[in-house]
Each structure stands twice: as structure tokens, then as C-alpha cells.
Amino acid sequence: MKPRGATAANCYLRFKNIITALPQNYGILAIDQLGYGKSDVTKSDRTLNHIMDETKAIVDCENLKKVILFAHSLGGLYALGYVKKYVEQVVAIIGVEPVTGTADQDADAFAEAVKQEANEISQMRAYGGIPETDLREHINPYLDKEEYDAQLKIFRETLDNSNQVNEAEHAKESVLAIKNQLIPDKILVLLFSRPARSSEYENSEFKNTNEQTRICYCGNSHFLHWTESKRVISETNHFLKQIEN
User: Fold this and answer.
1) pLDDT values of the chain reduced to their tens digit, one per residue, 245 residues
2) What CA–CA distance (Å, rounded) separates 208 from 215?
3) Residues 13, 15, 16, 17: what is their CA dihedral angle, to the nearest 10 degrees?
4) Gap between the Cα atoms of 64 and 185, Å rounded
5) DSSP-assigned letters across all residues of 45-100
6) Taken in order 221, 90, 61, 57, is the CA torsion positive or negative?
7) Residue 184 DSSP class
8) Which of 20, 48, 67, 226 is most buried as measured by Cβ atoms within 10 A of its Cβ?
9) Nearest to 93 by CA among 207, 222, 217, 227
10) How many helices (H) and strands (E) does the chain have?
11) Are 58 and 67 in contact (CB under 8 A)?
12) C-beta of residue 191 within 8 angstroms of C-beta of residue 72
């Protein structure tokens, strides 16, 4: 998970190539949590419960009764957290290399790495700013120049702010809170993963016995929604048709 600040990006721009290829009859919420994208930096404690309650408040504001969760990386932790608190609302989960509860042994090191990175970024800012070359590979390659520049600007302004660091400090307790939080069989699951992580996912909280649940192994990147975009879009659209049926 390096750099941690990659999650500072605007959610819509990060997944635009997927969002714009999905059926138009689905309402899509691309949520920037506090301290991310265009959302404010606040003093809110970034625990799993707080983040889930904030997400639920947005869902309720949109008057949604059923949701399909699309999770990448750390979003997997929050997808599992949402199921834990609001299981009756969740129809399905689509995950691209999502975090699982098997990562709890890494949580302390992860939080410490974030603090270290925040210090390094502060030093870079003091000496002229964060080089574009350090951020380029974490920006959606399907964006046009205007969108690319907008995402780059967001990175430079929000990378490793106090909300994100606070979130990392709660990483271990958040992961432990969802460890062994199995997905009920009534919820359909579609995962995309590198083959190297097959053992983790086959034994993770995401693996249930629903006959339509499946894991697609492809590529060799954490950003499969970019590097394997056609596969992710095709499989996701097919998955959504299964749900409709």
C-alpha cells in the first residue's frame, strides 16, 4: 500500500473509466471521505464506525434502500465494515484487490509507514513541493489532460493530511473489527485479484458459498481497474445482469 497518499484522490476521477462504462440505469455514488478528494479535512476521528456511519448518512440522504459496494484496496475493509453494520442493505460486493482481515499483522507497520511518509511529504513541500513523477503512476491513465491536472492538484493539496494519518492510526483496530466478518451467502461477490494473492482471497472474509460468487485472477498490478480495464468492465457488467435476473 505505497504510497498511502494515493487514496487522497478524487473517487470519481479514480474510477471514471469503470463508472462511465456501467449501465446507465444504476445510480452511482463516488464518495470522497473526509480528508479525501474534494471533501473537507476535519477533526473527525477516523475510526471504522465513524466512517461507516458517515457513509450510511450519505446513502440515506440519497434515499437508497439497496446498495452494491465497489471496493478497491483499503475500500475492502470498509465494504466489510458496511456489511457488518448494515448487512440488510447490501445486495452485492465488487472488489478490486480489496484489503482483507488477513492483513491484521501488517496494521502496525502500515500506520508507522504512513507517519513516516507524512514527514517526508512535509519535507518535500518545504523544499518546493511533491514531484509529479512521484504521483503520476497513481493517477488514472484514462483521464484527459484537464482531469489529470485536476487529480494531480488534489494529490498535492491533500496527500497525507491529518484525517488520513488519523485513519491509519486506527488501521489495526479497524482490520481486527472486520476479521472473520464473513459475507452472508445471500450477498453476491465478484473479486478481481492478481494470481499471487489467490491464497489470501480464497481464505478471506469475501469468500462465501453463493454459487454466483467468483474471483477473477488477472494481471499483475494493484490497479487492475486500469491495467485490466476491459476485463473488469466486461465481468462487472455480466455480474450486474446476474443480479438483475
Assistant:
1) 233 344 678 999 999 999 999 998 888 999 999 999 999 999 989 999 999 999 999 999 999 999 999 999 989 999 999 999 999 999 999 999 998 887 666 677 766 776 677 667 767 766 667 778 878 888 999 999 999 999 999 988 888 788 888 888 888 888 889 988 889 999 999 999 999 999 999 999 999 999 999 999 999 999 999 999 999 999 999 999 988 87
2) 11
3) 140
4) 22
5) ---HHHHHHHHHHHHHHTT-S-EEEEEETTHHHHHHHHHHHHGGGEEEEEEES---
6) negative
7) P
8) 48
9) 207
10) 11, 4
11) no
12) no
Q: End-to-end CA distance of the chain, in Å? A: 37
Q: What is the DSSP string of 194-224?
A: -GGGHHHHHTSTT----TT-EEEE--S-S-H
Query: 105: phi > 0 → left, psi -120 to 50 → alpha, else beta; which?
Result: alpha
The HSE-up count of residue 211 (CA atoms within 13 Å, CB side) is 1
Q: What is the CA radius of gyration of the chain?
A: 17
Q: Which residue has the cell 517526508?
A: 120
